[in-house]
Amino acid sequence: MTPNNGNSVSLIRKAIILLTVLIVLVVFLIIFQFTDIAFRVWDRLQHTSPGFLVFYLIIISLIAAAGAGLIWKIWTVGRNRKNGKTPAAERKRVSLEELQARAAAARAQGLDTSAIDAEIEAIAAEPQELELAFFGKISTGKSSLIQTLLPHATIDTSIIGGSTATIERYHYENPRGLSLTLLDMPGTHQAGADGTLDQEVMNAARRVHIVAYVIDQDLTESDMISILRLHAFDKPMLVILNKTNLYSASELEELQTRIRARLPEGVAFITSASAHRQSVRRLNPDGSTAWQEREAPGEVSALLQQLAQMTAERGTLTARNRQALLALADEALSERLAHYRRERGEAMVKSYARKAMLGGVAAVGPGTDVLIQGYLGMDMLKHLTKLYDVPTRDIDLQTLVEAASSKVKTHLTVILALAGNVCKAFPGVGTVIGGASHAVAYGLIFESLGRATLQALEHSSQGALNTQNIMQNFEEQLHHDLETRAQSLVRLALGSREKNRQS
Q: Which residues form the signal peptide (predicted)?
């Protein structure tokens, strides 16, 4: 080490020591200040009335509690809950009456709700038999486990796995009064390419009363993903370690310990051994030996005991399942209604764009009076908001039209130029529809405004329905694929013209 380096290190050490001394002195100063204040406050409180002292302590306690609560709120906001499970209380709860009212309103709008109505009738009918669904990867022995429970049932099992391609249903009943419908679900490597559960299988899981996940080895990452997703449905759930006959006693004990440590809270864990074929060595009368395969009985007593405990509270299971079915039907209705509104809205926007083109033909110059003052702009927005059951008071249509017209002024020159170039690609279009470039420009403007409004209406539940968001969407639409859209509008106008001639 050179002398210069030694001096530098020495200076740094001295600086750190000096900084440490200063920090200690500041800490002492703060402690002394607080101590002095505390003693002075305490001395004064000694000479006050007991009533004031109690009041003072209550105020201090409330402020401290509020501060602690605020700190906890800041610390926990945005953090994921353990295992990603959403408490049932935080999920949207739908009543049968609310669902029926929503279905009636959708039907009044023209939506075919026959499938939803059938689901509502099935939910209202009650009661239904308890259902247990077996999930798990292929070749974990789900079908063999059901075969063990129902030895006389015809169940296709295979040693290579993947025997269940669809959801199979079986009825189980024993002399002790346990009655269940067993669902053999497709293996997760069949249901999803990544080994997880696809949407159809997940919806089936939401419809059953009890969920069982079957494994035959230690939990893998895809197993945990599937288990957590199933557990999030807030249903009684058990994980079954099957094929225990393949493990020694020490291996099985170690495996059970590892699995239990990883399972979410509230998930039951049991072991089982489904009926299987095993090779045994048989001694012949002549003294020779031969290997022979025979059916080994399964061990499912722990499974039956666990199911008996779970089904003892039938009323609770039925109520939870009813709520799950209502939520599924409500989601299906929302999806169908959204799809219906989207299709109707897009058709409505195209219709008004065509009307705007016809209005543009009569325009003397490239103005925006049709959009600002004309009937078409306001009428289109009124019909779109009515389609989505959004009161017109929720959005100032006049302000929206004025904001849109102001936005159009900055883009009109470019839109007209583009419309003119597009019209040149259609021979004779100018003589067919007259003021072609003006017409196409009006069509693009109305189509852009309609699409922007539709986009905001689709996300109105998220607070996106305001003039600012619609204008932002409008700006994006005015730059989105204008040439292709202009060509489509010209073809639409020519097609309408041809139909009118033929009629």
A: none
